[in-house]
Amino acid sequence: MEILFLAHRAPFPPDRGDRIRSYNILNYLAKRAGVHLVAFVDDDSEVTPEHRALVDECVLIRRTKSQARAAVEALAQGKPVSLTAFADRRIAATVKDILARRPIDAIYAFSGQMAQYLPAMGPRAIMDFVDLDSAKFEAYADDSRGPMRWMMRREARLLAAHEGTVANRVAASLFVSAPEAALLPGSRAVENGIDTIFYDPQMTTPEKTRHPLIVFTGQMDYRPNVDAVIWFAQAVLPLLPDAHFAIVGRAPTSAVRALASASVTVTGEVADVRGWLAAADVVVAPLQLARGVQNKVLEAMAMARPVVASAAAAEGIDHAGTIRIAIDAKGYASTIKQLFADPAGASALGAAARRQVIARYGWDARLAPLNVLLGLSA
Question: Which N-terminal residues, if any, form the signal peptide (predicted)?
Answer without folding.
Answer: none
